[in-house]
């Protein structure tokens, strides 16, 4: 639906702009813009015919098949799978108003529409289609030759089939060639005679007798004009063939100035929108005939070939010419050039002067060339010019207020007035400057004529009245070798030495002004005084403006596309036009006004370059270099050519170009840009090829594109016709592209391509949700595990603290409290008889002994709580202190030995080992009643602690489950279990007790692998 609306929109624009877009018929062919695609370039096979379909594409029939062209790329057309053309040898094409394409080939007629190809083959043996047209009612007609089915030489399309007409319909010929429709609706077609026919009417036969006399000649093409006139191209053997003309019931050879139809063989005739006749010849190139004047263009002018088979006018008014050497296109450019091809006497345009009658005089080498105002007549040469025969250059020119024309001819200065030449001389009758030249002539506000004459070594300023020099001023110093003049609008004149110095000569005084750019070797090419009496200097550094002593410049920093400016002039609207190195530049009056208020700002510049018909050149040192005719046309002398632009008739290309997205390339796989595309997951490199169908100047077609869902703003690729993207994430995307034609008219609707990139497994939403759920579950599980670990550790700590408190409580109860209780009994016994002093003394002595024992027992309990090895790493030293403490209470002989090198231990493990060993040493000293105690600490692969005595031993039941109310043995076993060690107790009555503790090295020592270290830390120190 969108595409059909777009096509209707473009068709409406085509109808509105049809007359506006066409070649200017008054130009010569060489003045059109010309582009050629030659066979030897390799992009195109031998072309046969050309047409344009309503969607904007150009179609070309070649020897190798059908080719589609977008102005930049030739793409071979391939029919859909399972379909084919009747024959690859295509003779003619037609783009119909309904958007379809008709293809005439060696074996019949084919129709391509809506992606479907239908072949209408009337004779498998080969029936050639000669021509295809669409009449004013939209009916498709075709002529045929080599007809063997007997159905007639002309056919029309009737919905589903072809209906052919022959002898039974009043057509006496057996085959048809060229075909056209005249203004009355008659069909004209060629054969052995020329026929005019419409369904239901009788055949009118013309030219039949002459064809027979010509010895078998035939009409190969026909063209009809709006007044009912008809041209016919004849081929064969005999006299007066070529191009014939029928008008007012009379046939004759077509002869106009520059073209003789009797001698030129033609196979191709075409009438364009301006009713100009184009004749494509068999071997002599192309002819254009308008207003009875013929213009020729051939391979010597740049045509791709001299044998022309087809001409066509596209919807933008461009003319296409199919030759045996390739394809040519002619466009109407805004800048028109005149050179020796257009009639200039030589390629040395020194100066240019527009006259009041609209003609333009060009100062050339040894001549003055006159370009007539009507633009139709040939360039003429001014007759009677003195020195014309000796090749003297015509330099400075000027037209004064009286209409006289001043000409610098060699070393002489001439006036042309009323078709006569008058020479200006000095008062003594001598020449102005021997071996010199006149560079510039101007007229000031007081009607004084000033001339600047000089030679390489010197220059003089002359004031002329009548035909005599009234005043001569030698120029020297900083203004010597002056070449440029300009008249001030108030008083005086301006002089320039072509460099950085200006001089204002007023009332006999010379005032020097510097442009202030001496270090950059400034070159001044011309001077111009505008309507506000501001002086402008065109230089190689930009455009300088001097007014009331203030000097400003428009250059590259202000947006000027190139700094070298040769001349400047204003148009009727106040816009400035610059002849610059990069083309002809336009700065509008509004832009100039804004710039004058702020000389630092940039200005908008319209550029006309070589694609617009500009032929750049430096030009000479004579004035004027630019001039304006009364109708507003601007003329520039640009060295080898004269260039003209008409600001009032700049035919803007109003047709916005149709925009199409041709294909999408994903990872080197091509996708047709049709409908919604579903791309596979992990699509990496994307290339989107798009185009815009404007053929006038394809290299000036610009694009903007945006990928919705990725780009935040429009991208500006310029003229590039591809967009590139990499590693787009999965999702839905819409690619939109718009374009403008060579005149900046945008097609805002553009083209749209929707596509999606499918996600892979890990890019799907359900996979992401699953990952989130799994992650939350893992976090929750880790949290629960951590909580359990912390709870377990806290519980273990509580159990340890409870066990330690229970042990201490038991020890206090079994020792300290027992002693205190005994002391109380002693005291109570003594208090029973306070009068018995002896008894009291004994009791107090015993009480003191008991209290001293209670003090020792309490100190021992406190020491067992405070003693730790966490402050030191030396476990052996800790055991020595415990042994020394034990030695003060026991009579036993105690020995301590260390085997192996001491190693770094985990503090918690080390402390637990110490507490187990301390408890065993204390129990042995306090309860074994032995006379020998052996303690051994061994550092090996594991840590081994051995404690043995020769005391009374431990009752087996006590050794197994511990003594009721005591927690010593139970506490040692619990500590050993907590650190993953092996605790062994061996005891027999009257033979002593042995305790062995074996702690695995991976737990006891720090020199273990990191994972085990982290594991121990997580167990013993979770914080």
Please provide a written account of the structure.
The protein has 1023 residues and is an alpha+beta fold. It has 5 domains: 22-332, Methylamine Dehydrogenase, Chain H; 338-649, Methylamine Dehydrogenase, Chain H (7 Propeller), CATH 2.130.10.10; 659-763, Immunoglobulins (Immunoglobulin-like, Sandwich); 764-866; 869-1023, Heat Shock Protein 90 (2-Layer Sandwich), CATH 3.30.565. Helices cover 19% and strands 38% of the residues. It contains 11 helices and 72 strands. The strands form 18 sheets. Strands 61-67-66-63-64 form a 5-stranded mixed sheet, with no helix packed on it. Strand 7 (101-105) and strand 8 form a beta hairpin. Helix 7 (907-927) runs antiparallel to helix 9. The longest helix is centred in the C-terminal third of the chain and has 67 residues, at 765-831. The radius of gyration is 56 Å and the shape is elongated. The chain starts with a helix and ends with a helix. Mean pLDDT is 85; it is low at 1-20, 867-871 and 1008-1020.
């Amino acid at each position: 639906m969108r595409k059909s609306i777009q096509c209707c929109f473009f068709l409406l624009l085509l109808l509105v702009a049809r007359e506006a877009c066409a070649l200017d018929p008054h130009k010569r062919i060489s003045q059109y813009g010309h582009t050629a695609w030659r066979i030897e370039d390799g992009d195109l096979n031998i072309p046969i015919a050309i047409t344009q379909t309503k969607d904007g594409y150009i179609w070309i029939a070649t020897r190798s098949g059908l080719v589609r062209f977008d102005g930049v790329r030739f793409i071979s057309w391939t029919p859909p799978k399972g379909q084919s053309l009747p024959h690859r040898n295509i003779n003619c094409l037609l783009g119909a108003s309904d958007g379809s394409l008709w293809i005439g080939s060696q074996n019949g007629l084919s129709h391509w529409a809506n992606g479907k190809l239908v072949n209408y083959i009337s004779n498998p043996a080969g029936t050639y289609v000669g021509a295809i047209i669409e009449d004013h009612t939209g009916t498709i007609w075709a002529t045929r030759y080599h007809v063997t089915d007997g159905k007639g030489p002309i056919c029309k399309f009737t919905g589903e089939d072809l209906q052919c007409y022959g002898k039974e319909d009043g057509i006496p010929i057996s085959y048809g060639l060229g075909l056209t429709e005249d203004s009355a609706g008659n069909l004209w077609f060629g054969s052995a005679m020329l026929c005019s026919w419409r369904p239901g009417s009788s055949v009118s036969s013309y030219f039949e007798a002459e064809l027979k006399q010509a010895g078998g000649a035939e009409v190969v093409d026909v063209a009809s004009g709006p007044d009912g006139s008809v041209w016919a191209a004849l081929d064969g053997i005999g006299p007066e063939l070529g191009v014939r003309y029928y008008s007012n019931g009379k046939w004759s050879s077509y002869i106009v100035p520059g073209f003789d139809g009797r001698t030129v063989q033609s196979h191709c005739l075409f009438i364009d929108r301006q009713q100009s006749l184009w004749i494509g010849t068999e071997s002599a190139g192309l002819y254009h005939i308008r207003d009875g004047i013929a213009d020729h263009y051939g391979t010597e002018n740049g045509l791709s070939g001299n044998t022309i088979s087809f001409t066509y006018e596209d919807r933008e008014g461009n003319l296409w010419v199919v030759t045996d050497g390739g394809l040519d296109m002619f466009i109407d450019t805004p800048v028109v050039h005149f050179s020796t091809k257009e009639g200039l006497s030589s390629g040395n345009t020194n100066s240019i002067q527009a006259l009041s009658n609209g003609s333009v005089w060009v100062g050339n080498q040894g001549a003055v060339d006159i370009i007539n105002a009507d633009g139709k007549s040939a360039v003429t040469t001014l007759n009677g010019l003195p020195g014309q025969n000796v090749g003297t250059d015509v330099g400075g020119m000027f037209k004064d207020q009286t209409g006289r024309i001043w000409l610098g001819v060699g070393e002489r200065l001439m006036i042309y007035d009323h078709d006569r030449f008058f020479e200006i001389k000095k008062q003594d009758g001598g020449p102005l400057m021997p071996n010199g030249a006149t560079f510039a002539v101007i007229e000031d506000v007081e009607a004084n004529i000033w001339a600047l004459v000089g030679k390489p070594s010197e220059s003089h300023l002359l004031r002329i009245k009548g035909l005599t020099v009234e005043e001569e001023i030698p120029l020297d110093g900083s203004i010597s070798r002056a070449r440029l003049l300009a008249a001030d609008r108030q008083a005086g004149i301006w002089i320039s030495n072509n460099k950085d110095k200006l001089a204002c000569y007023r009332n006999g005084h010379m005032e020097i002004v510097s442009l202030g750019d001496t270090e950059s070797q400034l070159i001044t090419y011309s001077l111009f005084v505008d309507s506000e009496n501001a002086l402008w200097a065109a230089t190689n550094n930009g455009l300088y403006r001097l007014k009331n002593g203030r000097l400003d410049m428009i250059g590259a920093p202000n947006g000027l596309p190139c700094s070298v400016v040769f001349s400047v002039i204003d148009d009727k609207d106040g816009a400035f036009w610059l002849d610059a190195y990069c083309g002809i530049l336009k700065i509008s009056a509004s832009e100039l006004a804004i710039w004058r208020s702020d000389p630092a700002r940039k200005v908008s510049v319209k550029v006309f370059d070589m694609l617009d018909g500009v032929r750049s050149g430096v030009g000479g040192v004579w004035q004027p270099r630019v001039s304006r005719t009364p109708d507003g046309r601007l003329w520039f002398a640009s060295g080898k050519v004269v260039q003209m632009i008409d600001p009032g008739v700049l035919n803007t290309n109003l047709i916005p170009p149709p925009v199409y997205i041709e294909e999408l390339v994903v990872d080197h796989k091509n996708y047709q840009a049709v409908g919604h595309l579903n791309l596979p997951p992990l699509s990496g490199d994307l290339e989107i090829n798009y185009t815009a169908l404007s053929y006038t100047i394809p290299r000036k077609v610009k694009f903007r594109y945006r990928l919705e869902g990725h780009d935040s703003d429009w991208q500006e690729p310029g003229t590039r016709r591809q967009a590139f993207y990499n590693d787009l994430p999965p999702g839905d995307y819409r690619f939109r592209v718009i374009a403008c034609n060579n005149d900046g008219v945008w097609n805002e609707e553009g083209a749209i391509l929707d596509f999606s990139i499918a996600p892979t497994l890990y890019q799907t939403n359900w996979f992401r949700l699953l990952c989130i759920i799994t992650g939350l579950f893992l976090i929750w599980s880790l949290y629960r595990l951590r909580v359990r670990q912390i709870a377990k550790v806290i519980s273990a700590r509580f159990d340890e603290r409870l066990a330690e408190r229970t042990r201490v409580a038991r020890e206090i109860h079994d020792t300290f409290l027992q002693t205190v209780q005994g002391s109380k009994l002693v005291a109570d016994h003594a208090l029973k008889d306070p009068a018995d002093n002896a008894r009291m003394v004994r009791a107090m002595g015993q009480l003191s002994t008991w209290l001293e024992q209670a003090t020792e027992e309490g100190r021992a309990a406190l020491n067992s709580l405070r003693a730790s090895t966490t402050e030191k790493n030396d476990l052996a030293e800790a055991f020595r202190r415990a042994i020394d403490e034990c030695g003060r209470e026991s009579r036993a002989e105690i020995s301590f030995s260390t085997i192996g090198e001491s190693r770094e231990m985990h503090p918690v493990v080390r402390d637990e080992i110490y507490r187990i060993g301390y408890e065993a040493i204390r129990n042995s000293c306090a309860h074994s009643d032995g006379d020998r105690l052996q303690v051994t600490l061994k550092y090996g692969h594991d840590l081994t602690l051995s404690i043995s005595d020769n005391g009374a031993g431990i009752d087996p039941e006590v050794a197994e489950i511990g003594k009721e109310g005591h927690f010593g043995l139970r506490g040692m076993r619990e500590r050993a279990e907590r650190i993953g060690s092996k605790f062994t107790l061996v005891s027999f009555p009257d033979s002593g007790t042995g305790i062995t503790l074996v702690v695995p090295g991976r737990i006891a020592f720090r020199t273990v692998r990191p994972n085990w270290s982290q594991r121990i830390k997580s167990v013993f120190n979770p914080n």
